[in-house]
Design goal:
The strands form two sheets. The protein has a three-stranded parallel beta sheet with strand order 3-4-5, with helices on one face. The protein has helices at about 5-15, 45-60, 75, 95-110, 125-130, 135-150, and strands at about 20, 25, 30, 65-70, 110-115. Helix 2 packs parallel to helix 4 (about 95-110). With about 160 residues, the chain is an alpha/beta fold. It is built from six helices and five strands. It is extended and about 75 Å long. A hairpin with a 2-residue loop joins strand 1 (about 20) and strand 2. The chain has two domains: about 5-125, no CATH class; about 125-160, no CATH class. It binds flavin mononucleotide. Flavin mononucleotide (FMN) binds next to strand 4.
Amino acid sequence: MTAEPALIPQSREALFTPLTIGTMTVPNRIVMAPMTRGMSPGGVPGEDVAAYYRRRAAGHCGLVITEGVAVDHPAALGDAGLDESDVPLLAGDASLAGWRRVTEGVHEEGAKIIAQLWHQGVLRKPVFRWCLSAASLSTKRAAVASRSAPGASRPMPSAIA
Ligand SMILES: Cc1cc2nc3c(=O)[nH]c(=O)nc-3n(C[C@H](O)[C@H](O)[C@H](O)COP(=O)(O)O)c2cc1C
């Protein structure tokens, strides 16, 4: 039986060694990807959210990247109806207190946590989302013509509905 190449066990060991990124040192190289949960009614992460992130830290994620969180700016979440309901905010006393609970729990498990900032930018406007959609140019032209007609309603193109 052939011996396993030395590179593989060395790589596995590296996964469990600390890593310094700027001024932050994480206990290992296991990083949790940001995943939107929509579990923060009113933008406030509650005890359940704190428990969720804490469990990930206890499960040896050395670095947790939060779900997208919105600062108090119109371009952060916008008004385009991207189903961003119950997305947590990083603004306002109640939300900040909620995030304090989250970070304390993660830190108590020995992990680090960084916030992913949700910024829709121009995509918060339906017209910009439509421009970036996969619809063909001719479909877009036809849609512009019908949307521009006097008294026309403005349905969303099916590609992004
Ligand atoms: C339910 C769910 C929510 C997600 N929310 C976010 C998010 O808020 N921000 C983000 O950058 N990526 C988000 N993602 C993408 C994940 O971070 C990740 O990039 C994606 O699942 C691909 O990971 P994989 O290459 O390991 O399969 C989400 C993915 C899922 C499944």
